[in-house]
Amino acid sequence: MSAGAIVPEGPRPRHFGWARLGIYAFLIVAALFFLFPLYVMVLTSLKPMAEIRMGGLLAWPSDPTVEPWIKAWTSACTGLRCEGLRVGFWNSVIITIPSAVLAILLGMINGYALSFWRVPWANWMFAILMFGTFIPYQVLFYPLVRIASTLGLFGNLGGIVFVQVVFALPVMTLLFRNYYASLPEELFKAARVDGAGFWRTWFSIMLPLSGPMLVVACILKVTNTWNDYILGLIFAGRDNLPMTVQLNNMVNSTLGEREYNMEMAATLLTALVPLVIYFVSGRWFVRGIAAGAVKG
Fold first, then answer.
1. Residue 209, burial from CB neighbour count under 10 angstroms (0-12, 13-18, 19+)
2. What are the distances in angstroms from CA 150 to CA 102, 143, 144, 146, 155?
3. Span 240-250, mean pLDDT?
4. Helices and strands: H and E segment counts in the chain
5. Does domain 89-245+272-293 fall into CATH 1.10.3720.10?
6. Rounded CA gap, 124 and 127, in Å?
7. What are phi and psi of 57, to 5 degrees?
8. Cβ atoms < 10 Å from Cβ of 150
9. Do 289 and 266 form a contact (C-beta atoms < 8 A)?
10. How confident is the model at residue 112 (pLDDT cuts 50, 70, 90)?
11. 229 CB contacts (<8 Å, ≥6 apart)?
């Protein structure tokens, strides 16, 4: 051993003990608690109605079938229309993608301007923008309906995208403003010394460094828009209802026999996109939060 080397002292930590056993037990119980409803939904969606009527909620289906999934997607009745959830799915896609892109892009620019460019009244502008996050949606519905009607945006996809961007902008601005404020200011000053302007600095320096926060903003915005119900119900119009509204109409307008297997399949189809996003991007979400989402 070389001279001056640090020798660890004290008892060697055990690899397994009662504390770790307790942690594992708690995690297992918590996982089972949250996975149990999902387990029941998946089993029910794979059972024919004859087997569901016999009981056995936790029993594995004796004759598994994907017919409820096919019916939920193609021919389930959502109100007076029997076109399945596919129409609502594509409506949700058309609503989610442009509203997420516009909200994140505008939030990035606002956060960049409020963190580095000392525009007049920047703090007051930021405070007013943040005040919008604490106003309940219901208070703004009537004026937004009048504004959207005046602009010809009420009852169509453009109107629901506009409303989604408006409500998401304060949160997106807060995320990116705090993230940019955590970056070394010397980067910005060096770019200014080299003659870079507002857009050049943003494209060449800030945008490449925004990866972690882009993932956080994308996860938050996509999941919130996809799971939204009330904005889609009010502003989308009858022909552009998102998947969540159609799912509600399907469950609440069932006539005759209630098809629990089809309803469970429709619910899983509606939740599929957020689940995939969280499973795929979960670790990047944690990295983005740690990189500056709660700093400021």
1. middle
2. 22, 11, 10, 6, 12
3. 85
4. 13, 0
5. yes
6. 5
7. -60, -40
8. 9
9. no
10. confident
11. 242, 244, 245, 248
Spans of all domains in the chain = 18-65, 89-245+272-293
Among the listed residues 282, 250, 283, 254, the one whose alpha carbon sits nearest the alpha carbon of residue 269: 250
- Vertex 144, ends 142 and 148: CA angle to 5°? 120
Query: Exposed, middle or buried by CB within 10 Å (0-12, 13-18, 19+), for 206?
Result: buried
CA distance 278 to 240: 26
Mean pLDDT, the chain, integer: 82
**0.70 exceeded by pTM:** yes
Mark out the alpha helices in 182-252 (DSSP H runs). 185-193, 198-201, 211-227, 230-235, 243-252
